[in-house]
Amino acid sequence: MSLLKDLPELVSANIITNDTAQQITEFYKRKHETSPNRQLLIFGILGTILVGTGVMFIVANQWDQFPQFTKTTCAFLLLIIPQLFCAYVMLKKIGKAVWREVAALLLFFVVGANLSLVSQIYHINGDASTFLMAWMTLTVPLIYLLDASVLSLAYLFMSMIYGLTAMNNGAFPNEEYLFWIFFMLPLPHYLQLFRKAPASILLILHHWMVPYILTQTLIILTHRAHMLMYPAYIFMFAIFYFIGKRPIFKNRPLIQNGYLIFGFAGTIISLLVMSFKANWKDLAKDVYQISNIMTTPEFAGCFILFVLATILLYNQNHGKNWAKWKLIDVTYILFLILFILGAQVTTLSVILINLLVIIFGLMLLKEGAKHTHLGIINLGMLIFALLAICRSFDSDLTFVVKGILFVLVGIGFFATNWLMIKKRNENEA
Amino acid sequence: MKHKTLLLIAFIVVALAQLFVPYQMISKQAGYAATGSEFKFKTENRVNPNFNGIGSDLSGKFIWLKFKEDHIKIADKNEWENTRNAYVEFTTDSAGFAKILSVAFIKPNSNNWVRARVNVDWKDSTRLDISYPFNQYYIQDTQNKKVESVIKNGLCDTLKVNFLTIKIKENQFVSVDLMIDGVPFKEMIREVGKSN
Predict the structure, then answer these.
(1) Is A125 in Cβ contact with B133 (below 8 Å)?
(2) Is the whole-model pTM more than 0.80?
């Protein structure tokens, strides 16, 4: 802790008193004691995974020569030993986070290993999604019984794999909707973690995992009206953005705020995708007649996401002066209007979307200039660069126009950075 | 303390469930072996000039079997284009060999079905190719040398009647024997081994 090292110097320079120095030392000592041992946790988990993999390799090496009974016994011992370990942890080490996390994660993996070993030994036929479903159902209680956050992360990730497997290769029709149930099962633990340990690294990982998984799996809503997934995604990214702006994330470093980053980057990327005219052509199909889309799951998803985003927008901005609203707050509404418009006049919508991206870039430049923030300015320039790259794929622009676009963006990068650094130096001088 | 006991009881219930599910899988499988209907699937492996005459028929511990009944004619390819898995129901033909009764999206009423991977043939769009989950015949990898000659001279011989006997019940199956010209594969391996 560099502050602790500097304390004697600060005291001798009469900046703080001896008492204050003492209090600061005490504060960090207490903080260190209460925070769980992060290193031990990380290495404990890595160790668990490595040992598990190692045992499997050793067993697999001689596997075929064993009789069926021996193989079955091995498969069950592999399960029973970690179960006993979990019971021991529950009895003796329940207060130790590292023990709980490692025991729960170990049992999670061996339950999956046991199921697949038994299927392999007895040549049991089945779908991958059914296997994942059995695995996840058998392990979800461990999250709560052992209060295990690493398991909750692993479980969320597995629910995504389940959802995508069920969508591509489900055992029965519409199996992929079960994903939402599996996804929601660990969420109470996530909310609990919010209250209990708001600064814990495991909570921060959850802040990244949840938007990541939803971004990957929203696609499972797709059935017939796949074009409706574009607004659905934009609405979801708006929701992420609003969550990232909640007071709970205030004064936290950006790296801890997965929602805000996913929300912002997702919105820009979705707009860039829709800035290609080719991505609009399916909208002319019969499925997208208003009477036909009303009954599609995509429409239901869009509707729910839109309502949620609007509630969050109201919560964030009610009583706020219109002038203080940001463009990204209402992007999802603007996109909806452009999307409906696009069904009639696609070209106009595409032009307006390109314009919207440009305005986004300009707003960021303006904000960056106001706060003399190089990061924000370069983000704005990056958006221009991405737009220029996207347009370079359009065949109806000549090479000269494409070239000029790139040159302009390049000059922009140099000019804004140079101006900013100059301005900053002037301010400091 | 009471809270801890409750948690422990809950954990024991979960642990027992974790043990019960694989146990049930095994006992069910044993049931299928006893009560499943037996079918004989004619194989259609052919000599391949590559890899010592066996092509890709042998991979690790499995022989890839090609079956005679591995496709059906379809009228409308659009109906099948986005389908990956379907229910295939079987019956027996006059010679006693397995025959496809139907390929459907919904579960058949009888017990004689498996879920199989289907795809429209890339050369012939009126043909739906079916890939069965039992197309891998498991062998002990230590016997590979003998297996190669049995595949080349037995399994791929068009003049011999080769078939896989399998018991099927509701998507579960147990391979009973691979018969090569009336001789079980396992016996054949042993004979070839002796003569070497």
Answers:
(1) yes
(2) yes
